Amino acid sequence: MTQSNHPLEIHIHGQVSLRSDVTFAMLQEALKPLWQYAHARSLADGSNSFYDDEPGIKFDAGECLLQMCWTVEGNEDFRLVLDEICMNLNEVSQCGAALEVTFYDSAFDNADEDETPEQESRDDFIVLFVGPDPAAIMQVQRDLLVQDVVSLMERHFESGELTDVVKAIDNLFHKRFDDLVSSLQLGRPPRGTGGTGGTGGQGGTGHGGRKPRHLH
After folding, report:
1. What is the residue extent of each domain of the chain?
2. One-character DSSP codes across 117-144
3. Cα 63 from Cα 69, distance rounded (Å)
4. Which one in 159, 182, 205, 216 has a CA-CA gap of 20 to 30 Å to 107?
5. What's this model's pTM, rounded to 2 decimal places?
6. Are 8 and 74 spatial neighbours (Cβ–Cβ below 8 Å)?
7. pLDDT tens digits, residue range 46-97?
8. Quick one: 130 exposed, middle or buried, by C-beta within 10 A (0-12, 13-18, 19+)?
9. Contact, 33 vs 92, CB < 8 A?
10. Which residue, 215, 214, 9, 22, is CA-closest to 105?
11. What whole-number distance in Å separates Cα of residue 59 and Cα of residue 64?
12. DSSP code for 18
């Protein structure tokens, strides 16, 4: 059996503000690809994480909030589940939200020392964006990018010096949104289109350079 056949630990972390009319039954249907992947019979049955110290999948009806800190064992086919989950959450979300997804190759830790030079870990980290419409999704993408860029550049510049940088980012997103609107067919505005952001990327291939199992 090769390492690529070993299960991955897949962790989803984030929270999504839901429409006020969303019920547990509606959320259960939206998250059906997740709990079915975990071989559960319902959301209640599949909401617990692989790790006992994680909250799992929680629905706060009073706050209209979905909170996820949930790990499942799986493989690369889980990426297809993520596509479906994004589309489903678009339909019940109130505003844009970002979800962090970590693929952790636990088998790489247990590989024999003489195997690791020839085999790379399958670690990966991506950010998914969901929202009720493209504008809401682009807004949360913009906010996350500004946060990352400002955090990085404040090591070298004062925050007041970064105004033009933030304006440049805003202009890029305005252009992207205008291009999207101009490409749409009249009378058929799309729902939100969840997807990965620019923060995705492969994990390191050596034990010393790898990210921790969970990034929070």
Report:
1. 3-132+191-207, 133-190
2. TT-----EEEEEEE-SSHHHHHHHHHHH
3. 17
4. 216
5. 0.77
6. yes
7. 999 999 999 999 999 999 999 999 999 999 999 999 999 999 999 999 999 9
8. buried
9. no
10. 9
11. 8
12. B
